[in-house]
Design a protein that fits this description.
It is a single chain. By secondary structure, the protein is mainly α. It has two domains: 70 residues, no CATH class; 55 residues, no CATH class. The protein has five helices and two strands. Strands 1-2 form a two-stranded antiparallel sheet.
Length: 148
């Protein structure tokens, strides 16, 4: 285990957060949604390391919030910020290295503008898909896939 505060510790925390993201995707996809208790979306029984776990997903907040609640907010912010920093350093600070194909007629400024523009269009389209009733899946998924 790395010492707290050094770069190995930060690297380890980032990888644990990515693993937690995969875990929550798996958890969501494996919830038992048949006949849940009042106020629940589903539940799951699991076993790991000799322990048996019963997980429940609430539709909204539970009637009484627990005193010790782990919130994955800071892990998510760290992952997002480090991803943006890597995007800027690897692709946008020296676009001729990885962003532009050899022999391409694109200038570095044009390639970076296309990259930023793609991010903005992607953000806008996913935001529209997530917030508009007319764009709810599966129509939204089909539309987004056909655009790319």
């Amino acid at each position: 285990m790395a010492e707290p505060g050094n770069s190995l510790d930060t690297h380890d925390r980032r990888h644990r957060w990515i693993g937690a993201s995969f875990y929550f995707v798996w958890l969501e996809n494996n919830l038992n949604r048949s006949n849940p208790r009042e106020g629940l979306s589903g539940d799951l029984w699991a076993i790991h390391g000799g322990g048996i776990y019963h997980l429940e997903k609430y539709k909204l907040a539970p009637p009484q919030m627990p005193e010790n609640l782990h919130w994955f907010k800071w892990e998510a912010y760290t992952t997002w910020l480090s991803g943006v920093a890597l995007l800027l350093v690897v692709y946008y600070l020296n676009p001729s290295l990885y962003l532009i194909a050899p022999g391409s007629e694109l200038t570095p400024a044009t390639a970076v503008a296309i990259g930023f523009g793609s991010l903005i269009v992607g953000w806008f389209s996913t935001t529209c898909c997530a917030t508009r009733r007319w764009a709810r899946p599966p129509r939204c998924s089909a539309w987004c896939c056909s655009c790319w």
